[in-house]
Design goal:
CATH topology: Rossmann fold
Radius of gyration: 15 Å
CATH class: Alpha Beta
CATH superfamily: P-loop containing nucleotide triphosphate hydrolases
Largest sheet: 7 strands, mixed
Number of strands: 9
Helix content: 10-25%
Distance between the termini: 12 Å
Structural class: alpha/beta
Length: 173
């Protein structure tokens, strides 16, 4: 598992965090957000309760003025939109999605255009739909109250990858 990767020719991303609180997870998200540019797509993967939504909340807070900006998990809405400066953020949750067509129906291709962030929880349900510039983060809960967050890859995995992004093909940079 890689804890760093090159996203663009001049940018190296780093993330390897063990957290024991929501505040630590949000702090890690703020630090990670500071490494990203306006064309970032971040895949948040891992089991229920592993910290994906908390991390997304921290990233959104970092860009859009604090924790009060967070509209909640997009589990039922599928996407929450955060317009504004310095660039918009679109927070997706693919947990309830059954078919790729549902993702396209909400305008996925337009959301993946340049000039904003897309944060995608449960992206590993449809890895073949993630653009090549996707940054993959893996969340886990190794013990009660603990969360582990690791940068896993900076490429889109193969759709037939056995274990999500780690088993994908493509060039890891």
């Amino acid at each position: 598992m890689a804890d760093e990767c090159r996203q663009e020719a001049s940018t190296t991303l780093h993330l390897s965090v063990d957290s024991t609180s929501e505040a630590q997870t949000r702090t890690a998200a703020v630090a990670f957000a500071a490494q990203l540019g306006p064309d970032s797509i971040v895949a948040l993967t891992g089991p229920l309760g592993s910290g994906k939504t908390c991390f997304a909340r921290g990233m959104i807070a970092a860009l859009h003025g604090g924790l009060d900006a967070f509209q909640g998990s997009p589990t039922f809405a599928l996407v929450q939109e955060y317009p504004g400066q310095p660039w918009p953020v679109y927070h997706f949750d693919f947990y309830r999605i059954r078919q790729p067509a549902e993702i396209f129906d909400i305008g996925w291709l337009e959301y993946c255009s340049r000039g904003h962030w897309c944060l995608v929880e449960w992206a590993d349900r449809f890895p073949e739909l993630m653009p090549p510039r996707t940054v993959w983060l893996r969340f886990s809960a190794p013990t009660e109250g603990a969360r582990r967050i690791r940068l896993e890859a900076c490429t889109t995995p193969s759709p037939d990858a056995a274990n999500g992004p780690a088993g994908g093909k493509g060039r890891k940079t």
